[in-house]
Amino acid sequence: MKLLLIEDEVELAATLHRGLAQEGCKVTLATDGATGLELAQRLAFDFILLDINLPDMSGFEVCAALRKSSITTPIIMVTARDDVVDRIRGLKGGADDYLPKPFAFEELLARMDAVKRRMERTQSGTVQSDGSLTVGDLHFDPRTMTLMRSGSPVQLTVKEMGVLRLLMESPGTVISRSEILRAVWGIEDDPLTNIVEVYLSRLRRKLHALGPPVVENVRGFGYRLTA
């Protein structure tokens, strides 16, 4: 995989470069927005990791310029900003995901895998051209972080949305407990925590209040979206 890393923090850039290279990625590094933008417009990449706080132009500006140039390379924004307003701005500006610092390297890999799955699902119609997901009567818009079921809004927490998004990206596929932990919480499987079960219970209760059950517990294996 050819990956463009746009990051001005020297230590973090070196750590990410080393880790991604060990995962088989061919990494090109840019330490400012203008250079990153020029590289992304001139060369073909499979993925872009983009910091927001860059010395010349912000990651928001780089992302917007790339999308205006009709460059559809998946982009994950990696930033110290964790405000909901910034997350929404990044997603509305064309980013495919948003990862606040500090983060576990395993969570970055999990999010990259999730974005790749969404790109693949675009071909089948599950993911729309604007990045939203539609499965049955469920519609999730990551730009506004809103979920609708049969036209009615469903109020979910950020983590609940993270879990549902993971299930919606692969409807009918059983997602294991450990995969949910890695993708949503960025941690490895821990038999002593029941956090996945707690959040799935809340999610199912909210969804099933508006229609028939769509989140199935496949006992001993994980969960899947059956809509």
Uncertain spans: none
**First-residue to last-residue Cα separation:** 33 Å
What's the shape? globular
- Helix percent reads 40-55%
Q: Biggest sheet, open or closed, and with what strands and sense?
A: 5 strands, parallel
Task: Specify the structural class.
Answer: alpha/beta
H/I helix tally: 8
Order of helices and strands: EHEHEHEHEHEEEEHHHEE
What keyword list fits this structure?
single chain, alpha/beta, four-stranded antiparallel sheet, about 230 residues, five-stranded parallel sheet, about 20% strand, 11 strands, about 40% helix, globular
Describe what you observe in this structure:
The protein is of the alpha/beta class. The mean pLDDT is 87. The strands form 3 sheets. It has a 5-stranded parallel sheet, sandwiched between helices. The two termini are 33 Å apart. α2 runs parallel beside α3 (59-68). The radius of gyration is 18 Å and the shape is globular. It has 8 helices and 11 strands.
